[in-house]
Design goal:
The chain has a single domain, classed as 3-Layer(bab) Sandwich (minor pseudopilin epsh fold), CATH 3.55.40. By secondary structure, it is an alpha+beta fold. It is globular, with a radius of gyration of 18 Å. Strand 7 and strand 8 form a beta hairpin. The strands form 2 sheets. Strands 3-2-1-5 form a 4-stranded antiparallel beta sheet, with helices on one face. A 4-stranded antiparallel beta sheet has the order 4-6-7-8, covered by helices on one side. The relative contact order is 0.19. It has 2 helices and 8 strands.
């Protein structure tokens, strides 16, 4: 019994960190899925489609995908929301930070994390060709950092979702070594 108690005392913190990092990964994958859904729907409908995250509660990761009013930048109320995700699935710990700054997606810029809740709300609009929309007065989000506010910075395995001008999005790991396909 004593041996089991000692093993639990040693293993419990590591297990908690593992769970938190799995929460980060699953949230980042859900964000990536939402972006890919928006891009696919833009191509399928040959129309503008918006991926948005309100980022309430300091960067909660709920998102929605909707068709945009013709030649506009807001959701078309006449068309039902294409898909939505409730951000409560990550037990309140996974949070996002985002940026529209292109310098934050340059090589070497991923070492610094974007703080949870910074740069929200998030908005990425795709045109009918699946590319990121360029419109006057519109700034697309180009980087989304997913973090777990319940973990210490040293224990956190932050994930980053990057959206490029062609509309493709990818998830990367800022701690992965250069040459690794998962690296940022």
């Amino acid at each position: 019994m004593l041996v089991a108690a000692i093993l639990m005392k040693v293993a419990a913190p590591s297990f908690g960190n593992w769970i938190g990092n799995q929460r980060i990964r699953s949230t980042a994958e859900a964000v990536l899925y939402g972006l890919n859904t928006a891009r696919t729907e833009a191509l399928r409908r040959n129309a503008r489609v918006l991926f948005s995250m309100a980022g309430a509660n300091g960067g909660q990761s709920a998102w929605s995908v909707c068709q945009v009013v013709a030649a506009g930048v807001v959701c078309d109320a006449a068309v039902p929301v294409i898909q939505a995700r409730d951000g409560g699935e990550e037990s309140g710990n996974a949070r996002i930070g985002a940026s529209t700054d292109l310098t934050l997606v340059a090589a070497g810029a991923f070492g610094t994390a974007i703080g949870a809740g910074a740069g929200v709300p998030v908005a990425v609009m795709f045109d009918g060709r699946g590319r990121v929309m360029a419109a006057d007065g519109w700034a697309n989000t180009v980087r989304i950092d997913v973090r777990d506010t319940g973990l210490a910075a040293a224990d956190e395995r932050r994930m980053v979702v990057v959206i490029n001008a062609s509309g493709s999005a990818r998830m990367c790991d800022p701690l992965a070594v250069v040459g690794n396909p998962r690296a940022c």
